């Protein structure tokens, strides 16, 4: 774990005299990782969700208080029995192929999204029918009230209910589409897309922004740049030097150990983009040995020392990370530490004993891990080290992040290209309650990669959704989280805060769980 020291040395040697970037109609952006999957419904990868914000728009969006606000929707009406939601689109909305956005497009998009997204699945279970009333109006008629309807349609972070043309939304949700057409403020330029090198977007002149002030993904999404280029630079030292020389305008996620240099560099500014923080996670494959055995999963949980993970991935500055032994984000209403305190102790000797008692017999543990993602790669390296120390047969297979997100879809045994463990991160709002969090849903093969199967958890989630009393909802949410940790659905590894870096001649940068491109303009 001495990689950061080397990077600091490389960065120092690579720097030339900083130059203030000149105003340009092109915004040059370095994303957190390479973009390999273009379909934001098929994958929960954050980088694909960020790409989606450029291209698509949503009927509703969440502000910084997680309150849903109309976006593509002009508004809605709810029937007296709370079983019919009528939505009306704003006038003038068009897709990038110059076709109008219709009610039928919205229905098809919502239906496809709801197949894969946890809160969408809960919503879909209450739907009796979707009814297009006219080209700008449609209804969602329910079998029973679903009070989280607007929260579902405004879901922040990744795996959002983006609206796309009906013909594209008709694609099997289990298969990724390749045609990228939305109605958002930027158009994707497919002829310029080179995975591993560049992604390009052009301002959509036909976009109709709202009039409200922008906040998170709500309000006016005004594209001030004619063009945005994502430049894929996996080496942090190279990205740091490019930002200081003015060769790029914005680096989404600098390596934390390079931040002191960037913060002292003329012409560079930094700020914490999402004050709610992000969670670091270890996900185990419940379908295949050895982690189809809950006792072996508990041995892994017992081995976890969150501080070691956080220091490895985020540096030694505790202002940028914290230990958080909860399956829900810390400082949110449903945080719960009781189970983690008893089962996640960082005790390698106890983990070794648990492993022996479980009858572990040397099955290979394949950890798929990215080398081009500084906030994820070290997590896999720490896990490999700690599991080897408790006696597991570990095979750390490192590749680029794009390969990891493709491979984690496999349900095959490790001998046939499958996997045992992967690591990832996600924004706190995406894990804040049982309706939105993939981490506490026991949907088995219909659920998130790892495929934890718990009918008990699913029944409790439905009970939580139906509960009217806030005290009951809190009790149930914490019980669901405790169950998920006891059965080791997912292992939380701590929370961290992303300090993004950009040239000082940019203004209008917004807070939020994604690097929003709108409102940003030359000073």
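-> sequence recovered:
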């Amino acid at each position: 774990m001495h990689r950061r020291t080397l990077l600091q040395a490389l960065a120092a040697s690579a720097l030339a005299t900083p130059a203030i970037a000149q105003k340009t109609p092109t915004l040059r952006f370095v994303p957190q990782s390479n973009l390999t999957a273009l379909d934001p419904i098929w994958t929960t990868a954050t980088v694909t969700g960020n790409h989606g914000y450029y291209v698509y728009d949503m009927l509703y969006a969440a502000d910084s208080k997680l309150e849903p606000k109309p976006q593509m929707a002009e508004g809605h009406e709810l029937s007296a029995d709370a079983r019919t939601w009528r939505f009306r689109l704003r006038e003038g909305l068009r897709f990038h192929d110059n076709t109008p956005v219709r009610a039928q497009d919205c229905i098809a998009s919502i239906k496809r999204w709801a197949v894969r997204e946890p809160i969408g699945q809960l919503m879909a279970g209450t739907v009796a029918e979707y009814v297009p009333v006219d080209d700008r109006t449609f209804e969602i008629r329910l079998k029973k009230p679903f009070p989280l309807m607007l929260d579902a349609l405004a879901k922040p972070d990744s795996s959002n209910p983006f609206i796309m043309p009906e013909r594209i939304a008709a694609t099997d949700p289990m298969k990724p589409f390749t045609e990228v057409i939305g109605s958002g403020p930027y158009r994707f330029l497919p002829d310029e897309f080179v995975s591993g090198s560049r992604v390009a977007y052009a301002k959509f002149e036909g976009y109709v922004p709202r009039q409200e002030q922008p906040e998170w993904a709500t309000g006016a999404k005004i594209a001030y740049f004619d063009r945005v280029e994502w430049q894929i630079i996996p080496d942090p030292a190279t990205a740091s030097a490019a930002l200081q020389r003015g060769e790029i305008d914005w680096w989404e996620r600098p390596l934390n150990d390079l931040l002191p240099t960037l913060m002292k560099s003329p012409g560079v500014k930094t700020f914490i983009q999402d004050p709610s923080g992000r969670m670091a996670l270890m996900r185990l494959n419940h379908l295949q040995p050895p982690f189809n055995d809950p006792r072996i999963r508990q041995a892994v949980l017992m081995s976890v020392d969150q501080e070691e993970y956080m220091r490895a991935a985020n540096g030694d500055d505790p202002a940028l990370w914290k230990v958080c032994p909860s399956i829900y984000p810390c400082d949110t209403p449903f945080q719960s530490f009781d189970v983690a305190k008893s089962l996640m102790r960082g005790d390698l000797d106890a983990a070794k004993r648990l492993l022996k008692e479980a009858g572990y017999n040397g099955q290979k543990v394949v950890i798929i891990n990215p080398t081009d993602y500084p906030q994820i790669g070290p997590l896999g390296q720490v896990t490999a080290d700690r599991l080897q120390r408790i006696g597991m047969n570990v095979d750390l297979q490192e590749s680029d992040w794009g390969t990891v997100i493709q491979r984690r879809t496999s349900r095959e045994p490790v001998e046939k290209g499958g996997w045992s463990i992967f690591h990832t991160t996600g924004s706190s709002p995406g894990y804040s309650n049982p309706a939105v969090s993939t981490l506490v849903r026991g949907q088995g093969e219909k659920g998130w990669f790892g495929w934890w199967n718990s009918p008990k958890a699913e029944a409790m989630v439905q009970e939580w959704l139906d509960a009217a009393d806030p005290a009951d909802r809190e009790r149930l949410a914490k019980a669901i989280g405790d169950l998920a940790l006891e059965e080791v659905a997912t292992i939380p590894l701590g929370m961290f805060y992303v300090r993004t870096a950009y040239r000082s001649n940019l203004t209008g940068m917004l807070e939020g769980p994604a690097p929003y491109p709108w409102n940003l303009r030359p000073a």
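DSSP finds 16 helices and 21 strands in the chain.
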